From TrEMBL:
Species for this entry: Neoroseomonas oryzicola
PANTHER family, per the entry: TETRATRICOPEPTIDE REPEAT PROTEIN 38
SUPFAM superfamilies: TPR-like
Family: Belongs to the TTC38 family.
Superkingdom of origin organism: Bacteria
Protein name: Tetratricopeptide repeat protein 38
């Protein structure tokens, strides 16, 4: 029986195992194209169960129905080979089936169990952590990694990647000092570890360290930017830092040159594009015709209804472009999803649908209604996934809506939140000045 480079059992040949090692390493670094590596392997050894199972896991965690046909083809091939698979490989196939059937929570737990049984299985740890991220499970983003850390040492291949994953989990749990130290240690192990670099960026974003963050990302860009499948997201973080530095032109340049570089061919790319432009549009900045670059990618996914997080970002685009018909279609998609079964039904029902309606109300200028719909979601927004930095768009929108609605008390409260986190932010200071202007009549 063959094993991978960390000793995990495989039912394929030793030669195929070495090819898988290359693909998995690219998956960990988000460099080049691990799926292309797996495809080349499967062209020569179509009976490699782990090749099909890993391919399915990678495609599943794009949360993009555009890859659904490929995902299901890989899953069917993997399931045909289950009789010859070992227990670990069968668990991978089972997780992929759960995800494809809409049970994101079940799939995540299955990958997590694989990691418990095989602590050196870094791919299982990564897939489980990605599942936790898409589920908004901050504590588990950290603890999936913490469970296996005692079984690792610095000499094991991929130890730096494990540190980078842990850094992100620590950041999502608010342990910013340890997260930054662990993330920087991971980057020292491998300058191409885009996930670890992004974990440090998250720390600086949450602490309002915009100048440091922009400098750190620029200094490390040579490592994570070439041939990276994750570069668009790291550039998105740089753009957020630019906004918090008051450099709106710089943020828009990054949208033009970096964030939109892939043509928004993936839902994850379109999410970042919409999230950036929405932040600027809400503040009243002119973003030109840039929304048009996102309208078609979202229009082609408008009826997918597989992940409420996607649907809400599609709504941002259609609200900003004034496309009322598309807005109604997004609402209809979320209503169908909310009435269905599976993990996304909960996400759509609890957060996606009311948030999309709140965003639509903002677009109509009904700011009081936007406040009424978005405010109750603040405490449960994690239920529809993403990171703290991504979900900050709720607070961002709510702060602006409260001020425009003339709600002096809520504006004061929301501004207090922003200043506690980002006292030096020009955006926060601008909101503070406007909130004070609303409060003067109350004081008088």
């Amino acid at each position: 029986m063959a094993t991978d480079l960390r000793g995990n059992p495989l039912s394929c040949s030793a030669a195929a195992a070495r090819r898988l090692d290359v693909a998995i390493d690219k998956f960990h670094a988000y460099q080049a194209d691990p799926v292309a590596e797996i495809d080349a392997l499967l062209a020569e050894e179509p009976d490699c169960v782990m090749g099909h199972a890993l391919r399915t896991g990678i495609l599943a965690t794009t949360t993009d129905k555009a890859f659904d046909a490929e995902l299901r083809a890989s899953l069917a091939a993997a399931e045909r080979l289950v009789p010859r698979a070992n227990a670990r490989e069968r668990a991978y196939v089972a997780a992929a089936r759960q995800w494809a059937d809409g049970d994101l929570s079940g799939a995540t737990e299955t990958w997590g169990r694989i990691a418990i049984d095989h602590p050196a299985d870094l791919a299982a740890v990564q897939l489980a952590q990605l599942g936790d991220y898409f589920l908004g499970q901050s504590q588990m983003i950290r603890d999936r990694v913490a469970r296996v850390l005692p079984r690792w040492n610095r000499d094991m291949p991929g130890h730096g990647y494990l540190l980078g994953m842990h850094a992100f989990g620590l950041e999502e749990c608010g342990d910013y000092a340890q997260a930054e130290a662990t993330g920087r240690e991971a980057v020292a192990c491998n300058a191409q570890d885009g996930w670890a670099i992004h974990a440090v960026a998250h720390v600086m974003e949450m602490q309002g360290r915009a100048s440091e963050g922009a400098a750190f990302m620029t200094e490390t860009a040579a490592g994570w930017s070439p041939d990276s499948l994750f570069a668009f997201h790291n550039w998105w973080h740089v753009a957020l830092f630019r906004i918090d530095q008051g450099d709106i032109a710089g943020a828009l340049r990054l949208f033009d040159e970096r964030i939109s570089a892939g043509g928004f061919g993936q839902a994850l790319e379109a999410i970042d594009g919409s999230a950036l432009l929405w932040r600027l549009w809400v503040l009243g900045h002119d973003v030109g015709d840039r929304w048009s670059r996102l309208a078609q990618p979202w229009a082609s996914r408008i009826s997918d209804g597989i992940y409420a997080f996607n649907d809400v970002h599609a709504m941002m685009t259609f609200v900003a472009t004034g496309d009322r018909h598309a807005q109604r279609e997004v609402i209809a998609t979320l209503e169908r999803a909310a009435a269905g079964r599976g993990t996304n039904a909960m996400m759509s029902r609890d957060v996606g649908l009311p948030l999309a309606r709140g965003i639509a109300a903002f677009g109509k200028g009904d700011f009081a209604s936007a406040v009424a719909r978005i405010l109750p979601l603040r405490g449960i927004a994690n239920r529809f996934g993403g990171s703290h930095a991504q979900r900050d768009v709720l607070s961002w929108t709510l702060c602006e809506a409260a001020i425009r609605a003339g709600d002096a008390r809520l504006s004061e409260a929301m501004v207090a939140e922003r200043l506690a986190m980002k006292e030096g932010s020009p955006v926060a200071q601008g909101w503070a000045a406007r909130a004070r202007a609303l409060a003067r009549p109350i004081a008088a």
